[in-house]
Amino acid sequence: MFFDIEKFGGRTSIIEENRDVSYSALCSFSREIAEKMGGRSLCFIMASNTLASIAGYVGCINGKIVPVMVDSGLHHDLKVSMTDLYKPSFIWMPDSGETFSGYEEIWSKEGYVLLKASDDEPCELFPELALLITTSGSTGSPKLVRQSYRNLESNTRSIIEYLGITEKERAVTSLPMNYVYGLSVINTHLCAGAALVLTGLNCYSPKFWQLFNEKEATSFAGVPFMYEVINKLKVFKKKELPTLKTMTQAGGKITPELHKVFAEYAAETGRDFVVMYGASEATARMGYLPPEKSLEKNGSMGIEIPGGRFELVDDEGNVITETDVPGELVYYGDNVTLGYAECREDLSKGDENRGRLATGDVALRDADGYYYVVGRKKRFIKVVGKRVNLDEVERNLKNELQTSDVACTGKDDSLLVYLVDESLQEAASEYVFEKIGISRGLYKTLVIPEIPKNPSGKILYSELKTEV
User: Fold this and answer.
1) Same domain, 369 and 392
2) What is the mean pLDDT of the chain?
3) 378-407 per-position pLDDT tens digit
4) Is 166 part of any domain?
5) Tell me, what's the pLDDT at 138?
6) Which pLDDT tens digit goes with each residue over 2-60?
7) CA distances from 49 to 19, 174, 229, 308 (A)
8) Segment (H or E) for 27
9) At what angle do helices 180-191 and 51-62 cross, to 10 degrees?
10) Is 117:152 a contact under the CB 8 Å cutoff?
11) pTM for the complete prediction?
12) DSSP structure string for 350-373
């Protein structure tokens, strides 16, 4: 059983604004939900950072019911299209009055309702299939990552080990639980017998930090965009956070400049700042930068997690053994997931990845064995035969213009730079021409209302045009 948490008994598992919930109570609630579903089947969980949502998730995993983690705030039409495609036997969702054709309510508790398919069709599920989660770049996409029980167990054990999570920790839910990073915080802390401080507040709100202090939270998890905003608001410098021990960062590459800011803050105040590297396709984590190396290896995504292994390969698939030579980052480990699902029939598929994940990231390894991500394999274009790294151009422009609102796309011989501040357009154009050396007729700067991003702050390049 993945969530072997009965042993924690009367210890606090969930901390809400007005009550604490013991592990015994959480287990009882989760078993009750699983019993209502009656055995192995497919269930959509409309996820939120609430007791009912977490209990539903724990109940499904321990009851061998396969949950599909869906954002409860997703537009109804997108939820409908997903349920029509996958036809889950059950839907566990907030009691908001939302309805789904062909489903009827059979039970309710703690502000959630359980819906059952009126005409349930048997679904063939691969025996080791434990969980289905959207990739970090999708919103309402039918493409799901298939995670196994082995994936969950191995990655959770590894994260607990390298972060040193104990039963004394209290993690605040700064991320949504339908997001793989947010879910990994829940998995690790419950499996370690620690506590979760539940909130739907965002970390830009003073109330979030007030709750953080009141409930004596010990750790904060954030994506790069969150750290950018926190830095601008000077939250950590303005706020007294006596119980804060650990800050973790994942969900994309943080700039070296911002990395340095928080690494220095951690060093000055006796805390840990841990940069991590991962993907939904690897359950959650593949790499981490030990906090004691945070300043020395600024800009690095670190080393392999316990039990994992990295290698770099060139365009011909040959393993790169030299240092400081870029190549595609490939990961090996028990946490590499089974593969993707794009329809109901895919849920019967077995392990297609076999423990190997080609990440698509281009990285290099230094002489000490630390890895640095320098771009995406597919985020390259050729301009007059010259290979241009779109991620590198984007990163340099952000530094030059002192703004995070920059995105770069394009096709061969056509670079597009997206901005939201019209006053920066001329400076961006000059930088591309003077510093990057691209002729004026081969690039264009465009001003748009906002850079499209997913809930974790990653840019949605698919929503930006690649040619004009």
Assistant:
1) no
2) 93
3) 787 878 666 688 988 998 899 899 998 999
4) yes
5) 46
6) 999 999 999 999 999 999 999 999 999 999 999 999 999 999 999 999 999 999 999 99
7) 15, 9, 22, 30
8) helix 23-37
9) 70
10) no
11) 0.85
12) --SSTTEEEEEEEEEE-TTS-EEE
Give the DSSP H/E element, type plus range, for residue 43: strand 42-47
Kindly state whether residues 405 and 356 are assigned to the same domain: no
Domain that holds residue 361: 149-337+347-376
**Do both 372 and 385 map to the same domain?**
no
Q: Please state the length of the chain.
A: 468
In angstroms, how far apart are the furthest CA atoms of the chain?
Answer: 68
Q: Is residue 4 part of a domain?
A: no
User: Has residue 441 got a pLDDT over 70?
Assistant: yes
- Nearest CA to 273 out of 284, 260, 257, 256 is that of 260
CA-nearest of 220, 213, 207, 214 to 172 is 220
pLDDT tens-digit readout, 65-114: 999 999 998 889 889 999 999 999 999 999 999 999 999 999 999 999 99
DSSP string across 419-458? ES-GGGHHHHHHHIIIII---GGGEEEEE-S---B-TTS-
